[in-house]
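User: Reviewer 2 asked us to show a designed sequence for the structure in our supplementary figure. I'm pasting the structure tokens here. Could you produce the per-position amino acids so we can include them in the response letter?
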């Protein structure tokens, strides 16, 4: 059991995998990918870089479940869908990109993730973070530049996983997480179209839809040309 549910399921029998709730080997947290809101389903599926984590790089359900803009409206965060269970056609990809780029800043700047997950009136949003960082270091850095730093970090982590063999085929949810919920206020809700949501998120991130690899153009835009050569040299 110490090896985790993925390896345990592999050692038991072929049916055990259907009951092993994990993303890329990391056991899933309590926040269900069906009833919470569909952004967290995408976050678990992509699992960048360590698997189905609900706080890394951010709590993307702040957008469609909590309906909290976190001070990101001025940077292009779209309005959340009226129906949090609507999966595609609601600017989910654009929202996902902005939120994960922002979320990366918590680790980069060594601050608690809870400090960024509050409302725009109280959290350490990009505008406040850039002001604090400039005051502490003397650097002239804008909030928009900070978000680019976060985006670069998120893409670099994906490229690490790509180098180790991860591709779109691995961006998936376990069977139990796509079945309809059996009871409670969200009874009957399930993940209907993960592939469609991934398409929209990949497009917003600048990732190749077929492979899930950050495109050469995106990596060059982020100053990661050397990384692009590594992850794309093995591709057909």
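Assistant: Here is a per-position design you can include in the supplement:
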């Amino acid at each position: 059991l110490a090896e985790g549910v993925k390896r345990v399921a592999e050692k038991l029998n072929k049916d055990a995998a259907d009951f092993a709730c994990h993303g890329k080997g990391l056991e899933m947290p309590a926040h269900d990918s069906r009833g919470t809101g569909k952004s967290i389903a995408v976050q678990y599926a992509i699992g960048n870089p360590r698997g189905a984590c609900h706080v890394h790089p951010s709590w993307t359900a702040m957008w469609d479940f909590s309906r909290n803009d976190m001070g990101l409206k001025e940077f292009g965060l779209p309005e959340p869908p009226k129906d949090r269970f609507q999966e595609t056609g609601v600017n989910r990809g654009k929202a996902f990109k902005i939120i994960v780029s922002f979320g990366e800043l918590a680790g980069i700047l060594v601050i608690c993730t809870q400090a960024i997950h509050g409302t725009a009136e109280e959290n350490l949003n990009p505008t406040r973070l850039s002001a604090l960082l400039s005051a502490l270091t003397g650097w002239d850095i804008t909030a928009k530049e900070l978000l680019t730093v976060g985006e670069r970090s998120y893409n670099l982590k994906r490229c690490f996983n790509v180098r180790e063999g991860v591709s779109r085929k691995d961006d998936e949810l376990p069977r139990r997480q796509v079945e309809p919920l059996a009871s409670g206020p969200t009874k009957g809700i399930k993940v209907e179209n993960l592939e469609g949501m991934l398409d929209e998120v990949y497009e917003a991130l600048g990732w190749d839809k077929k492979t899930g690899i950050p495109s050469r153009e995106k990596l060059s835009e982020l100053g990661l040309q050397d990384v692009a050569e590594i992850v794309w040299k093995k591709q057909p």
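For the response letter, you might also mention the following. Residues 5-232 form a domain with the Aldehyde Ferredoxin Oxidoreductase Protein, subunit A; domain 3 fold (CATH 1.10.599.10). The longest strand covers residues 22-23.
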